[in-house]
Design brief:
Number of strands: 2
Distance between the termini: 62 Å
Order of helices and strands: HEEHHHHHHHHHHHHHHHHHHH
Shape: elongated
Largest sheet: 2 strands, antiparallel
CATH architecture of the domain at 309-404: Alpha Horseshoe
Structural class: mainly alpha
Helix content: 55-70%
Length: 423
C-alpha cells in the first residue's frame, strides 16, 4: 500500500477513535449484576473490557492445556511429510524397497494417505509385486477412487490383462467421469485390445481437458487414427473414415502412411500414391518414404522413376534407398536392387533393408548370401550384431555423398560454418 493511503487510513482511525470516545464519555452506560445477594455494578465500557480480558485469558489457558497434544500432532505431521518426500524421491530413483517402507509410514497420516498409497502401489509394481500393488490400491480407493482406478488399469495393462483394464475403465467412460489420465489410459488399452472405435472416443475428452501438450496429443491421436485406418473392414469404410478426418489429421505422417498401406491393399494404389507424394512435397518424412516402397499395385515403373528423382536431394537417405531396393525387387531388377540395398545397409542398417537385400541375392541365385542377409535381419531385429556378407566384391561406393546447399543469396553453405550438414 502506498504511503498516502497509510496516512489516510491513520487519520480515519484517529477520527473514529475520537468520535467513539466522545460518544462513550457522554454516557458510559450502567451494568448491574446481582446473584445470591452479590451485587456487581460497572459501566458498560468496563464490563465489555472485562469480558474481552476474560475471553483472552481462557483462550490462552486452553491453548496451554492443548499444547502437549498439539506438539505430538505437529511432530507426527512433520514426520509424515518427510517420509512422503523421502518415499517419492526413492521411487523416482528406483529404490523401490525404501520407497515402499517410507510411503507405508506416511500413509498413517490421514491427509497424506491417498497420495502415499498410490505411490506405494507404483513402488510395489516396480518391484515385481503386482498383486500387492493391487491390494494397496484397494485401500487407496476409499480416499482417491478415480486416481486408484486409473493406476489399477495401468498396472493391469502392464501385466497384459488388457480386457480387465478395459472392463475397469469403460463404465466410468460411459458416464463421462474419467479423469484425463483415465481417458489416456483408455485409449492405450483400447488400442492394445483392437477396439479402435473405443480408442477414438477417448480422444475428444482428452483434447478438451488440455492435459496433454500439443505434441503429446498429436502423437496419441496419430497412433489411434492409424490403427483405426488399418482396421477398416473394407474400402467403403476406409474412404468414409478418411473423408471424416480433419485437415490437420490427414497431414500427420503416421496417418498418411497407414492410409497409403490400407488403400493400396484394397486396390486404390493411385490414391495411396497421391497422398504420400503430396505429403512428401510438403515435408520430407522417412515414415512416408518407407510406406511409398510398401504400396501394393502394378504401377511400379512410375513409382520407381518418382523415387529415383528424390535421390538428387536425398542421396544419403537409407530409408529412400531401401524403398528403391524393394521396388526394384518387385520389378525383378536384381542388380539395381542390389546397388540400392548395399548402400542402404552401409549407411544405416535395418532389418527391412537386410531382408530386401536377401530377396535380391535370392533373385540372383546367390542363396548363401541371401541366407546370411536374412540372418542379419533377424539379428538386427533382436538388437544383436550382424555378420558381414564377405566374399562379394563391393558393387558401388557406399560412402556418404556430400550435397552442395546454397542459401537464399545463392552462396554455398560450408559445413561447420553455420551451414546444414550433408544429407
Amino acid at each position: 500500500m502506498r504511503p498516502w493511503r497509510w496516512l489516510l487510513l491513520l487519520f480515519a482511525v484517529a477520527a473514529l477513535a475520537a468520535f467513539g470516545w466522545h460518544w462513550v464519555a457522554t454516557d458510559p452506560g450502567y451494568v448491574l449484576v446481582r446473584f445470591r445477594g452479590v451485587r456487581i455494578e460497572s459501566t458498560l465500557v468496563a464490563a465489555l473490557a472485562l469480558i474481552l480480558v476474560g475471553w483472552a485469558a481462557l483462550t490462552v489457558l486452553w491453548r496451554a492445556l492443548r499444547w502437549p497434544f498439539g506438539a505430538l500432532s505437529r511432530r507426527h505431521r512433520r514426520l509424515s511429510r518427510k517420509r512422503l518426500s523421502e518415499g517419492l524421491l526413492a521411487l523416482a530413483e528406483g529404490r523401490y524397497g525404501e520407497a515402499d517402507r517410507a510411503l507405508a509410514r506416511a500413509a498413517r497420516y490421514a491427509p497424506l494417505r491417498a497420495t502415499a498409497l498410490l505411490a506405494a502401489a507404483e513402488a510395489a509394481h516396480q518391484r515385481g509385486e503386482p498383486e500387492r500393488a493391487l491390494e494397496t490400491l484397494d485401500d487407496a480407493t476409499q480416499d482417491a477412487p478415480h486416481a486408484a482406478r486409473v493406476l489399477r488399469a495401468r498396472i493391469l495393462r502392464r501385466q497384459g490383462r488388457v480386457d480387465d483394464a478395459l472392463a475397469l475403465l469403460v463404465p466410468e467412460a460411459e458416464t463421462g467421469k474419467l479423469p484425463p489420465a483415465g481417458w489416456r489410459e483408455l485409449a492405450e488399452v483400447a488400442l492394445l485390445a483392437g477396439r479402435t472405435e473405443r480408442a477414438r472416443s477417448a480422444l475428444e475428452p482428452l483434447r478438451q481437458s488440455g492435459a496433454l501438450g500439443a505434441p503429446g496429443y498429436a502423437e496419441l491421436e496419430a497412433r489411434v487414427l492409424a490403427a483405426a485406418i488399418a482396421a477398416a473392414p473394407d474400402a467403403a469404410a476406409l474412404n468414409a473414415l478418411w473423408a471424416g478426418l480433419g485437415r490437420a489429421q490427414r497431414q500427420a505422417p503416421t496417418v498418411i502412411a497407414a492410409y497409403a498401406r490400407a488403400a493400396s491393399r484394397r486396390g486404390a494404389t493411385l490414391a495411396a500414391m497421391d497422398e504420400v507424394e503430396g505429403a512428401l512435397r510438403r515435408a520430407w518424412d522417412p515414415l512416408l518414404v518407407a510406406a511409398y516402397g510398401e504400396i501394393a499395385g502394378d504401377d511400379l515403373d512410375a513409382r520407381l522413376k518418382r523415387a529415383e528423382s528424390w535421390l538428387a536431394a536425398h542421396p544419403n537417405d537409407a530409408v529412400l534407398l531401401t524403398a528403391l531396393g524393394r521396388i526394384c525387387v518387385r520389378l525383378k531388377l536384381w542388380g539395381k536392387a542390389h546397388d540400392f540395398l548395399d548402400r542402404a545397409v552401409a549407411l544405416e542398417p535395418s532389418a527391412t533393408a537386410w531382408e530386401a537385400l536377401g530377396d535380391a541375392c535370392a533373385g540372383q541365385g546367390d542363396h548363401a548370401a541371401a541366407a546370411r542377409c536374412y540372418r542379419n535381419a533377424m539379428r538386427l531385429a533382436r538388437h544383436e550384431p550382424t555378420e558381414p556378407l564377405g566374399g562379394r566384391p563391393a558393387r558401388m561406393d557406399t560412402r556418404p555423398i556430400a550435397v552442395e546447399e546454397r542459401d537464399e543469396h545463392g552462396v554455398p553453405r560450408l559445413p561447420g560454418a553455420g551451414g546444414k550438414p550433408a544429407r
